[in-house]
Amino acid sequence: MKTIQYLLVLVVFSTAIACGGNAEKTPETAAEARTELGKKRQELNKVKAEMDSLQAIIARLDPESVKEKEVVVEVGTLTTKDFRHFIEVQGNVMTADEPTAASSETGGRIMDLKVKEGDFVKKGSLIARINMQSIDKSIAQIDKSLELARDIYTRQENLWKKNIGSEVQYLQAKNQVESLEKNKEGLEYERSKSSVYAPSSGYVDVVMAKEGEMAGPGTPIVQILNTNSLKVVAAVPEIYLGNIKRGEKVTVGFPALDVQQEVKVLTIGRTINPTNRTFEVEANIDDKSNMIKPNLLATMLINDYEVKNAIVVPDELIQQDVSGAVFMMVAENGRAVKKIIKLGRTYRNETVVTSGLTGKESIITKGATAVGNGELLKIVE
Q: What is the pTM (predicted TM-score) of this model?
């Protein structure tokens, strides 16, 4: 160790003498300055050579002091996989079937409304009753007239069998009975329309008429939504028109419920909305949980780009140097190697590497930002 210190002092002393001898004269011309610069470079090269010689002596006499330091890192084996890129568009949940209306076939006052908004009704369930008091009175009057007409007909029939009276009287009595019976049958049919039934199963979405109000023939009383059949309708930008086809699978999600489903595209709109340059895409969904409601906000993921056996790396391992070059650090033969790469598409914190890697490298997963090109590595599990 004393020998090393002596040699270092000797080099420094020699350098000081060499530099001090020429420091008194200042060059007055450019030529003189260039000459002096050349001399200094020769002196510097001589000092460097002496320093390298001393370094070799130090390495021989004290190996531990010059041992290269290892950088602790973790590595992972790079592999290839299929890469898929998706676009996400917003949509809404709608009923696959149009809402149906329960309406009265005849006019009258609503006497008994059986449902309210939000109620679930089955097809054929009673919705409301219409007041048919006027028809009931008409039927009562016909019953009295029919009683008399039948009595007259019976008597005329008995007389006609005994060849008493005219055939015309007999036929008139018979016709009167048949006419009144037809009238009663028609009124009874009208009275049967007093009950309004649900045309389909679903939830009562809107009550359009209140109890006690007048209902006209064909006027809707309630509107029913069939929530057993739901769909997601999304507006997709026109630039993706060639990326989606009927029958292809898409992923629909419901942020409020944190639920996703993989479903098939049912229909694709035939027109482009001129206002926002989008077209509609529809997909039927399942609601086994009975939690999905019409008008619920939904998202639709559409696959617009796919590469088979691509080199895909996490975004956090991609670096950029001061020159703008993109690179990754890999481990080769126990040392760090800087690999300049080119990137492709990115999706969900992963990016495709199009060049610069073979897909079989050992990439540095932890410690990559703290290691330099060529540095010795200590790889830990």
A: 0.53
